[in-house]
Amino acid sequence: MMQESQTFQITTELIENAQTYSEYREMIDQLLAENKTTGTNHDAGYLDYTKMNIQRMNRWDKTAKISSELEKAIVSVIQPQIWLVITEGWCGDAAQNLPFIAKVAALNPLIELKFVLRDENPDLMEGYLTYGAKSIPILIALTKDLSKELFVWGPRPEFLQNRMKAYKIDPQNITQHEYVDGTHLWYARDKNISIAEELTKLISTTL
User: Fold this and answer.
1) Closest by CA position to 122, among listed 14, 36, 32, 13
2) Helix H or strand E encompassing 140
3) Which of 37, 41, 135, 172 lies at 20 to 30 Å from 77 by C-alpha?
4) Interstrand relation of 111-117 and 81-87 (parallel, antiparallel or unpaired)
């Protein structure tokens, strides 16, 4: 995807205060139990998104499969890396992709995966815009000492990013609801194949 140049310094303090995947999931579950989600918008629509996203993440936690090519790439990493993800609990693309990212990172103990919320970190988000938009999730891979950015992935597989660009230019009488349903149907049919291919290429550049 197309991200803007980084302008925000990712610090050790930011990483230390970021959440693990299990902490992130537990937070979303707890917020939903309180009729809340991440961020400040807790209206019914956002709560419905969050509830569906928890179901999606639960499903992918159980069913996501790592390709042999991706597994080979991730276990070949021999230098510690930090993977920082910018996300929110109500984001549909995040729900479809984060469980897979977590499974990939878990294959190598040298990968430290952390999560931060977009709206609580506006300066960080400004450094990783997608065509000027605050699209999430964004995965930022860094060296352990945070001195070098290794790669950036997100906010969605390339096919869906191109689909969104085309939809914004010409919706072709497809409603927003139909468009979103089509996106999640694509994720279900793709079964993480596209993100696996994209991450394999990106990880391979760090070896």
Assistant:
1) 14
2) strand 138-143
3) 135
4) parallel
Residue pair 89/53 in contact by the 8 Å Cβ criterion: yes
* 3-class state of residue 151 by DSSP: strand
Q: Tell which residue, 148, 151, 111, 106, has the closest CA to residue 128.
A: 151
Q: In this structure, what are the phi and psi dihedrals at residue 130, rounded to the nearest 5 degrees?
A: -110, 105
Tokens of 32: 């939903």
Residue partners of 135: CB distance under 8 A and separation at least 6 = 1, 93, 129, 154, 155, 156
All domains of the chain in start order, with CATH: 12-204 (3.40.30.10)
Q: Give tens-digit pLDDT for 129-179.
A: 999 999 999 999 999 999 999 999 999 999 999 999 999 999 999 999 999
7 and 20 Cβ atoms separated by less than 8 Å: no
- pLDDT at residue 9 in the model: 84
For the chain, state the CA radius of gyration.
17
